[in-house]
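The freezer alarm interrupted the setup, so I double-checked each line after restarting. Inputs confirmed:
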Amino acid sequence: MANTIGVIGAGTMGSGIAQVAALAGYTVILYDIEQSAIDRGMQTIYNNLSKGVEKNKLTGHDAEKAKRNISTTLDLMRMKSATTVIEAVIERLDIKQGLFQRLDEILSHESIIATNTSSLSITALGATTKRPDRVIGMHFFNPAHIMKLVEIIKGKETSHTTISRITSLAKEFGKKPVLASDTPGFIVNRVARPFYGEALRLLGEGVASVEEIDRIVKKSGGFKMGPFELMDLIGIDVNLSVSRSVYEQYFHEARYRPHPIQQQMVDGNLLGRKTGKGFYEY
Amino acid sequence: MGMSSKKRKTQTSNKSFLICGDERLIREYAEMLSNTDADIFVWHEHTPDLPKRKNVKYSRTLSRIPKKLIAVFELTNTDFEKKIDRISKIEKHCAKETLFLSSTVCHTATELSTHFQNPQRLIGLAALPTLLRNDLVELTRAPLTHNDALKTTSQIFFDLKKEVSLVDDRVGMVLPRILCSLINESTFALQEEVASMEDIDTAMKYGVNYPNGPVEWGEQMGFDQVLAVMDALRKDTGEERYRPSPLLRKLAAGSAIRGQIFP
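Predicted 3D structure, all chains:
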């Protein structure tokens, strides 16, 4: 009971988080509204665990134990036994707020509701519950079972105890937690904006080509990927949506303004790796 | 343009380079060039912190530096008047054919070339501290720059095991513009208490695999250098997006005074 983690949403992020928690020894209950989503999520977890064993990152025993630690459900009431629930559903405030209200009724008084949101206000989510002091952001990076960083985001009402409990949990998951205040884009999605924004402007102004900008950033700056390679990997539509969200939440601050090239690529369905063509062809 | 090995051998035995400009850059370029068999002459108003190598020589006056040089590395970003004064004095001192590699992160090569007697030997260089750790150097040219100047520059960097990339002549060039904008953004986040300095750096290194955290990178680079680039971008474009954060200005004042701001 004390070690039960609820994960809401069995998509890419939810299944990754469930895997991380299960590997850390927690009992995990993975919830989704559709059985097909749960099946896909569990298949992803099983595949990742097998790859981990193949690459000698995990023992077969650890992988089997992690699998046994995860149970799945279509019934939200089963979250009652969870001490922490990590929500990873679609990035829509109305849907998350509705979910938080239901969780607030189901969960025990001490339980924490953490959200994996990358763009929504923790304060706004907390305000829909009677426990804003126990609502917190826990932002994992994709793929969650590989990326070390977790942004812990404190809403206006989040208590020190909640911050401390979730920070410890992230460490037990083997992650590197950082603490951020509840501001648009938190740390990474905000500070990284110029990496893409300036590269797009340099391209738009004809200072250098896509290939040359990527080459300079990697070979002169020491970055593992150039901005255009990275946008293609993230998805040009996803990157535009993050840019737009930060820009709008900062009331049109010039530093975050998206670039027309991004919109043009999205209009042309040139979204990067996932459509076979973005700034590069795949 | 390929050079014969015979010619290259003759050149290396008489190589001399002159370096002047901002102190952090002088140190890094002296370090890089000292690994060659060339004589490195550093011209500066006061003794900079230099690598202790036999072939690195410091002089307060130009008169003690040979007139015949392979190239001049003029690395001033933070003070335009000083930059122009240095360029004018070096041009008067050196032989006419001397190659002139000048930092063009805060001014275009085109603008800079108007201050030259012989602009055909000017090559713009993305000289910003920390960038020599890696394998590529960004170059640009002014309208009157001679093709031979570009070829000789490429050969110099080739001998130093560096690739070059020629970009359009624009303030901030490519990497300095991206990098300084990132560092500026991190100082806005720091100022607004979005997170601590350490957490901002950790987040960018572990969340998006940056080679350095932006705050520590700014410190290594010198916040005065970052500020010079942001001020130049803002002046050049007139765009609000390049406005330096008030914290960056304070950090820059600190780094100009003490060399570093953090203990």
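Quick read of the result. Chain B has two domains: 5-166, 176-258.
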